[in-house]
Amino acid sequence: MTDDSLKLGWVEWCSLPVLGLPALKVKVDTGAKTSALHAFTVEPFGPASKPKVRFGIHPIPEKPEIEVYCSADVVDRREVTSSNGETEMRYVIETLIQMGDHEWPIQITLSDREGMSYHMLLGRQALSAYPGDGEPQVLPSMSYQQPSLDYDVYDKITKKPPTKRSLRIGVLTREPKSYSTKRLVEAAEAREHVVELIDTRRCYMLINAGKPEVHYDGRALPIYDAIIPRIGASITNYGTAVTRQFEAMGCYCVNGSHAIAVSRDKLYAHQLLAREGIGMPTTAFASSPQDNKSLIDLMGSPPIIVKLLESSQGKGVVLADTKKAAESVVGAFRGLKADFLVQQFVKEAGGEDIRCLVIGGKVVAAIKRTAAPGDFRSNLHQGGSASVVRITKEERETALAAAKVLNLGMAGVDLLRSNDGPKVLEVNSSPGLEGVETASGKDIAGLVIEAIEKRVSSYVRRRRRARAA
């Protein structure tokens, strides 16, 4: 018995809500056994026990510049013969189809239908899966028997939360066993995402206008939904080059290559922060050895901080108690041909600083770091201790402003509490998670993944095509 409540013409509007596709035109073809959905850049990922597939779709045949990226569990992979007699292996996924008030699960194969009038084909198996009293009645001479939809929905999709789906996330790191890396993997997998660890040094790049690629262990890496750069200071230049290549491929990077490079260049970062009126300790820099004494005099009365421009984790930072000691340290650094800056010592901070962790434009946690006895450096790597702290509104605003100026999606902003307000000591683009998670008790790694989920929209514009020669 035919279910009169669902009549279909040879072409209809439908939506695939689980895939984040609110409007598609589908050709209803009772002559075809299987259903097919246009897909490009089809890439399997995840464990063999639970394989997934990531793919892109052009939902509007006439507008290939509009791309929607989806991911789904793989149900099967089978050989399918098309109407023109060509046979190909296709991934099979299961998803929900909606037509008007009717919805039901269907299996659909992924195939490149670029150039075809309809980017989705509904075959007999999908019609047979309809859960009503009988299969939908197909009227070959009719069209659009179900309510019409509109492609205009794709203009508004970026203003809505992205459709929840399994993401393919890459972590650029040379420390796969570090606390931060392991926590990011745990947090992502708990949300059913797949994380792949990528040794930054082992990446090599194919640079061209048509299809930029990152290669690793003899193969081209896929386009990831997101990249989390965890780049050590010793490989900043190469690490930012690799990050830049992933950006060229269309991957979302939690911290962009330029932002990382700027944050690592302490002089440039201080210049940008100062330009925006963000408080920081008085800082000076000079190139000529003849300016040593004048450079130190700019800092006023000792003690004075002398800091290598490429220092990290408190290394390469020296406290000079007298001007003579400062001149000696500066002379030694110049002898090593090392770039450095001199900085005012904020005595009232008392060997303590505030680490504010900024993720996605919010301060998600703040801890007070206290220097070990006999040391002035509060870095945890130098033996300092950490405790949770309540920050002021001014400190919160300063941390947010600093991360925004350097365009960092994730940042550890170190503040000193001075007599005239908070001062930015440093902005770290690869902050460690152990100290802040332990002290605050918060799931910081989970917040990083949540921020990625909110930011990775399914709607993107196609990258600019290479110019014709």
From TrEMBL:
Cofactor: Mg(2+); Mn(2+)
Keywords: ATP-binding, Ligase, Magnesium, Manganese, Metal-binding, Nucleotide-binding, Protein biosynthesis, Ribonucleoprotein, Ribosomal protein
Pfam families the UniProt entry points to: RimK, Rimk_N, Zn_protease
GO biological process assignments: SOS response; translation
Transmembrane regions listed in the UniProt entry: none
PROSITE patterns: ATP_GRASP (PS50975)
Molecular functions per Gene Ontology: ATP binding; metal ion binding; ribosomal S6-glutamic acid ligase activity
Entry GO CC: cytoplasm; ribosome
Residues covered by the ATP-grasp domain: 270-453
InterPro entries: Asp_endopeptidase, ATP-grasp, ATP-grasp_RimK-type, ATP_grasp_subdomain_1, Peptidase_aspartic_dom_sf, Rimk_N, Rp_bS6_RimK/Lys_biosynth_LsyX
NCBIfam families per the UniProt record, alphabetical: PRK10446.1 (NF007764), rimK_fam (TIGR00768)
Family of the protein in this entry: In the C-terminal section; belongs to the RimK family.
Protein name in UniProt: Probable alpha-L-glutamate ligase
Organism field: Parvularcula marina
